[in-house]
């Protein structure tokens, strides 16, 4: 497990479109996931201890964000040949087990992860209603262990984006396992 941190938010960077297969059998695009007040694009996987520590809190908080008009989608970018824990079948089980209220899609070619410059799992990209990046921070201070009563940084940022179109200027980078890139 190689620990990585995301870079500072590139405010205004425009969301990239994609067409990726979801665990329920349909193809999802950015437009399909888009919310009227913003969109949260999350790069996660099944096996990362950083994701596993926060997944239930993340699912709960995303459901709250969806109620205020934030769309959400989770993208699994890892090499599934060398990391079979992240296989499509295991993605289906993971989404069902944790009761995802958002699409969980696979980036088989890793082109979307590269287009977003995703670094780790979890990696959060919070866009406003104009599809401009406003948040590239963490869920909260939890790492491989859930921190009880942690300040909900992602929820606060996405709520601010929903209300004002702007994200907070002070953001703490997300950290997690490096994306498992396929050999060239």
UniProtKB/TrEMBL annotation:
Residues 9-144 form the Thioredoxin domain. Gene3D superfamilies: Glutaredoxin. GO terms for molecular function: antioxidant activity; oxidoreductase activity. InterPro entries: AhpC/TSA, PRX-like1, Thioredoxin-like_sf, Thioredoxin_domain. PANTHER family: OS07G0260300 PROTEIN, THIOREDOXIN-DEPENDENT PEROXIREDOXIN. This is AhpC/TSA family protein. It comes from Amphiplicatus metriothermophilus.
